[in-house]
Amino acid sequence: MDDQELDLLYAQQLNEELQLQSRNAIARLIEELPLDFGLENLVPVKTNGVGTMVEKMAMLYQEVCEYYNANGIPFDHAWHWSFVWRQQLSYKALGSHYGVDQVVSATNPRGRKAVKQIYLENLDSYMQWFPWSWFSNMQFIGAGGFSAVYAALMIPPYDAQPTRVALKIVDDKILNEISVQSKAFLPLLFQGLTVCESTGDLMMVMKMSNDGNLEDHMQQLPLGDLDLKTITGTILRLAQNLTDLHKVQMNHRNVHPRNIMCTDSDYFLVDYRYATPSKESSAVTSLTKAVYGRLPYIAPEVRRGVYTEKSDMYSLGIIIWQLVSKVIFPSPDVLLDGANAAGGNVEDNPYRIEHVEGVPDWYKKLYVSCLEPRPENRPEAAELCVVLQAIHDKLDYSVPLNRRVTEYIVARRAEVADHQRTYAKVKGMVSASTSRLYTLSNLPSTEHFFSLPFRHIPFAMAMADASASIPSSSPSFTSPSPPAQSVSTPI
Fold first, then answer.
1. Closest listed residue to residue 445, CA positions, set 368, 309, 336
2. Contacts 24+ apart (CB under 8 A), 467-475
3. I need a surface site. Which of 26, 112, 174, 387 has the fewest CB within 10 A?
4. Per the annotation, where are the binding residues?
5. Where are the CATH 3.30.200.20 domain residues in the chain?
6. What residues are designated binding site for ATP?
7. Cα torsion at 220, 225, 226, 230 (round to 10°)?
8. What architecture does CATH give domain 3-207?
9. Which residues of 85-103 are buried (b: 16+ CB within 10 A; e: fewer)?
10. Which of 203, 140, 146 is nearest to 169 (CA)?
11. Which residues bind ATP (predicted)?
């Protein structure tokens, strides 16, 4: 081992030792001021110590900075301070220090079942505890499915910068969401848990999206992101989300643009309350004879009680089409109205899905392949990632779409608005399109609204046939291999 390797090993050991010292010091402060960290909701406490939180936190911060500076290691606030605090307030650390049984039994009875399940499923490394006193300015912002969602500001004492978060009451469905998201994606948008002071409800704490959901983005900026490089990057991120989910053998079962959060120029698939193991998805659908979803994102085979990973891919296909058409679907009441049902006038229906003029042929084949009526002809998420990554890498830095795309968007937007105004005059207010619970017997077919040239061939064959329309520098698409697995770090 040469001197450079020895120096590197010494620096690594020193850094680990300093982190251990920081963890121990933070643990002592939490012990000294238990009420400031809401530990009365987790473990019995008798006193809150002497002195103020602000003073003691400032003193500790200075000490930790000095640890690193005295040893010649540049102090990193996020890594050497905030990250260590998150570790020390994780359910794993609390369980190790006070005992898992104690933490579970001291939790409010309304949240006890969920906390116990978190430990049973080994999710405690990803779950941070947040005292209720850290939240302020709470506002009701809507209901996702059957759960109310609140916006709030969170100010941890170790980070003076307020963070916008969303809060959801944890029930069995939310617990399923926590479990699936933590296993498939680790702590992407997920933050932790808190207990409502007035009701005793256990609540999930999530990052609030900076830019809303994908449908908001398309609605507000219909002509603002008509760059093919940007669009293919968005699809790649969503396809990778599904790849990660399908790798752990889970199906989402409710993929649509409002369940895609846009934050920090990235996209995250959220809302895993109805996710099920892949091998059980069809059985659950057939047994319940119902599906919770949104039209037209529900795949045609679901009406027969069949749900697979390819059903998630069908939903993604609708989104791929929307990213160039910018069509925002109105309430399913418009679709289900007798005048628009099967046999009605398809040409002027706001739900119709057709080719967008001016879009490259290879892009058209992407969404057509995902929307193939037979699931076996649709791509797997990993297969789509490999094919599209090759195309994305070969595209120029900026690839503005043809003017005919803009003209199509403007025409469809005007048409949808006119249709909704006419419908509202006759039927009353038109609500937004949302997920609903449908029985399989009353789940309407939307297949007659598609005027796409389905080839009824596997995805690899469809893309190989499309290679002539892809830039000549792009590679062949006949033998895709799985993409590299994304890695996240638990708190």
1. 336
2. 467/362, 469/360, 469/361, 469/362, 470/360, 470/362, 470/391, 470/394, 471/394, 471/395, 473/394, 474/390, 474/391, 474/394, 475/390, 475/394
3. 112
4. 168
5. 3-207
6. 168
7. -150
8. 2-Layer Sandwich (3.30)
9. bbbbbbbbbbbeeeebeeb
10. 203
11. 168
pLDDT tens sequence for the chain (491 residues): 566 667 677 777 877 888 888 889 998 888 888 888 888 766 666 655 555 788 888 999 999 998 888 888 888 888 888 888 988 998 999 999 889 998 988 888 888 888 888 888 787 887 889 999 999 988 877 655 446 778 889 988 888 788 888 888 777 666 666 666 655 554 444 568 898 888 888 888 877 766 678 898 888 877 767 888 989 999 999 998 899 889 888 899 999 998 888 876 677 887 777 888 889 899 989 888 989 889 899 999 999 999 999 999 999 999 999 999 999 987 776 666 544 444 455 666 788 899 999 999 999 999 999 999 999 999 999 999 999 998 888 888 878 888 899 999 999 988 888 877 777 776 665 556 677 888 998 888 888 889 899 999 999 988 886 545 555 444 333 333 344 443 333 44
Distance of CA 372 to the CA centre of its chain: 25
Query: Residue 277: which region, alpha, beta or left (left: phi > 0; alpha: psi -120 to 50)?
Result: beta
Closest CA to 248 of 292, 182, 203, 188: 182
Contact 266, 355 (CB under 8 A): no
Q: pTM for the whole thing?
A: 0.70
Considering only CA atoms, which of 165, 176, 164, 174 is closest in space to residue 201?
A: 174
Counted residue by residue, the chain has a size of: 491
**Residue with structure tokens 């093919």?**
228
Distance CA 394, CA 223 (A): 24
- Residue 150: C-alpha distances to residues 209, 386, 414 (Å): 13, 38, 33
- The H or E element that residue 209 is part of is none
Task: Quickly list DSSP for 212-257.
Answer: -BHHHHHHH-TTT--BHHHHHHHHHHHHHHHHHHHHTTEE-S---G
Query: What CA–CA distance (Å, rounded) separates 247 from 116?
Result: 26
The label of the residue with tokens 């080839």 reads 455
Tell me the C-alpha distance between 260 and 258, whole Å.
Answer: 5
> What type of residue is 66?
E
396-429 pLDDT, tens digit per residue, is 887 888 889 999 999 998 888 887 777 777 666 5
Quickly list DSSP for 107-135: S-HHHHHHHHHHHHTT-GGG-EE--GGGE
Q: Alpha helix (H) ranges present in 33-124?
A: 53-70, 77, 83-88, 91-98, 100-106, 109-120
The structure tokens 């990193």 sit at 76
